[in-house]
Amino acid sequence: MAAVTMVELSSGGDPVAEGLLELIKPAIQQLDVHVHSVRESQVELREHIDNLATELFKINEHQKVALDLDPYVKKLLNSRRRVVLVNNILQNAQERLRRLNHNVAKETARRKTMLEASGVFTPRSPSRP
Protein backbone atom coordinates (compact mmCIF):
# COMPACT_ATOMS: atom_id res chain seq x y z
CA MET A 1 0.00 0.00 0.00
CA ALA A 2 1.18 3.51 -0.71
CA ALA A 3 2.22 5.11 2.54
CA VAL A 4 0.26 8.20 3.42
CA THR A 5 2.54 10.72 5.09
CA MET A 6 1.29 13.57 7.15
CA VAL A 7 3.07 16.38 8.88
CA GLU A 8 2.24 16.25 12.56
CA LEU A 9 1.70 19.69 14.04
CA SER A 10 1.95 20.77 17.62
CA SER A 11 -1.18 22.26 19.11
CA GLY A 12 -1.59 25.98 18.68
CA GLY A 13 -0.72 26.20 14.96
CA ASP A 14 -2.85 27.85 12.29
CA PRO A 15 -6.33 26.58 13.18
CA VAL A 16 -7.59 26.88 9.62
CA ALA A 17 -4.68 24.90 8.20
CA GLU A 18 -4.88 22.29 10.95
CA GLY A 19 -8.64 22.03 10.54
CA LEU A 20 -8.27 21.60 6.79
CA LEU A 21 -5.60 18.97 7.28
CA GLU A 22 -7.68 17.07 9.83
CA LEU A 23 -10.71 17.28 7.55
CA ILE A 24 -8.94 15.99 4.45
CA LYS A 25 -6.60 13.46 6.09
CA PRO A 26 -9.18 10.70 6.87
CA ALA A 27 -10.80 11.00 3.44
CA ILE A 28 -7.48 10.70 1.66
CA GLN A 29 -6.42 7.75 3.79
CA GLN A 30 -9.74 5.98 3.22
CA LEU A 31 -9.56 6.63 -0.52
CA ASP A 32 -6.00 5.33 -0.59
CA VAL A 33 -7.06 2.09 1.14
CA HIS A 34 -9.97 1.60 -1.25
CA VAL A 35 -7.87 2.30 -4.34
CA HIS A 36 -5.27 -0.16 -3.11
CA SER A 37 -7.86 -2.91 -2.56
CA VAL A 38 -9.40 -2.30 -5.99
CA ARG A 39 -5.96 -2.48 -7.59
CA GLU A 40 -5.33 -5.83 -5.87
CA SER A 41 -8.69 -7.10 -7.14
CA GLN A 42 -7.82 -5.92 -10.64
CA VAL A 43 -4.52 -7.82 -10.58
CA GLU A 44 -6.28 -10.95 -9.35
CA LEU A 45 -8.94 -10.62 -12.05
CA ARG A 46 -6.27 -10.17 -14.72
CA GLU A 47 -4.54 -13.35 -13.52
CA HIS A 48 -7.83 -15.28 -13.64
CA ILE A 49 -8.50 -14.04 -17.16
CA ASP A 50 -5.00 -15.11 -18.25
CA ASN A 51 -5.51 -18.57 -16.73
CA LEU A 52 -8.91 -18.95 -18.36
CA ALA A 53 -7.55 -17.90 -21.75
CA THR A 54 -4.74 -20.44 -21.41
CA GLU A 55 -7.22 -23.18 -20.50
CA LEU A 56 -9.43 -22.29 -23.45
CA PHE A 57 -6.44 -22.51 -25.79
CA LYS A 58 -5.59 -25.95 -24.37
CA ILE A 59 -9.18 -27.15 -24.70
CA ASN A 60 -9.34 -25.87 -28.24
CA GLU A 61 -6.09 -27.69 -29.15
CA HIS A 62 -7.26 -31.02 -27.65
CA GLN A 63 -10.78 -30.95 -29.04
CA LYS A 64 -11.53 -33.60 -31.60
CA VAL A 65 -14.61 -31.66 -32.67
CA ALA A 66 -13.87 -28.37 -34.34
CA LEU A 67 -15.26 -25.97 -31.80
CA ASP A 68 -14.33 -22.39 -32.48
CA LEU A 69 -13.34 -20.83 -29.17
CA ASP A 70 -11.39 -18.00 -30.76
CA PRO A 71 -14.20 -15.41 -30.38
CA TYR A 72 -14.41 -16.22 -26.65
CA VAL A 73 -10.67 -16.02 -26.21
CA LYS A 74 -10.69 -12.66 -27.99
CA LYS A 75 -13.42 -11.43 -25.65
CA LEU A 76 -11.39 -12.56 -22.66
CA LEU A 77 -8.28 -10.83 -23.94
CA ASN A 78 -10.30 -7.68 -24.60
CA SER A 79 -11.61 -7.85 -21.02
CA ARG A 80 -8.06 -8.29 -19.76
CA ARG A 81 -6.98 -5.20 -21.70
CA ARG A 82 -9.78 -3.19 -20.09
CA VAL A 83 -8.85 -4.44 -16.63
CA VAL A 84 -5.27 -3.31 -17.22
CA LEU A 85 -6.54 0.08 -18.42
CA VAL A 86 -8.68 0.53 -15.29
CA ASN A 87 -5.72 -0.48 -13.14
CA ASN A 88 -3.58 2.20 -14.79
CA ILE A 89 -6.29 4.79 -14.18
CA LEU A 90 -6.45 3.77 -10.51
CA GLN A 91 -2.67 4.03 -10.19
CA ASN A 92 -2.78 7.56 -11.60
CA ALA A 93 -5.61 8.52 -9.23
CA GLN A 94 -3.72 7.10 -6.27
CA GLU A 95 -0.60 9.04 -7.24
CA ARG A 96 -2.64 12.26 -7.50
CA LEU A 97 -4.10 11.61 -4.05
CA ARG A 98 -0.62 11.08 -2.66
CA ARG A 99 0.56 14.38 -4.19
CA LEU A 100 -2.53 16.21 -2.90
CA ASN A 101 -1.91 14.87 0.59
CA HIS A 102 1.74 15.91 0.38
CA ASN A 103 0.84 19.41 -0.87
CA VAL A 104 -1.71 19.92 1.93
CA ALA A 105 0.84 18.89 4.54
CA LYS A 106 3.50 21.11 2.94
CA GLU A 107 1.17 24.12 2.80
CA THR A 108 0.18 23.58 6.41
CA ALA A 109 3.82 23.48 7.48
CA ARG A 110 4.57 26.58 5.38
CA ARG A 111 1.74 28.54 6.99
CA LYS A 112 2.81 27.45 10.44
CA THR A 113 6.36 28.61 9.71
CA MET A 114 5.07 31.92 8.36
CA LEU A 115 2.98 32.47 11.49
CA GLU A 116 5.91 31.62 13.76
CA ALA A 117 8.20 33.99 11.84
CA SER A 118 5.70 36.87 11.99
CA GLY A 119 5.38 36.49 15.75
CA VAL A 120 1.63 35.86 15.61
CA PHE A 121 2.18 32.31 16.75
CA THR A 122 4.76 31.22 19.28
CA PRO A 123 5.17 27.52 19.86
CA ARG A 124 4.25 26.46 23.38
CA SER A 125 6.38 24.16 25.42
CA PRO A 126 4.49 20.98 26.43
CA SER A 127 5.48 21.63 30.07
CA ARG A 128 3.88 25.10 30.11
CA PRO A 129 0.08 25.34 30.46
From TrEMBL:
Keywords: Coiled coil. Pfam families: Snapin_Pallidin (PF14712). Residues 83-110 form a coiled coil. The keyword Translocase does not apply. The keyword Coiled coil applies. PANTHER family: SNARE-ASSOCIATED PROTEIN SNAPIN (PTHR31305:SF2). Belongs to the SNAPIN family. This is Biogenesis of lysosome-related organelles complex 1 subunit 7. The lineage of its organism: Eukaryota, Metazoa, Chordata, Craniata, Vertebrata.
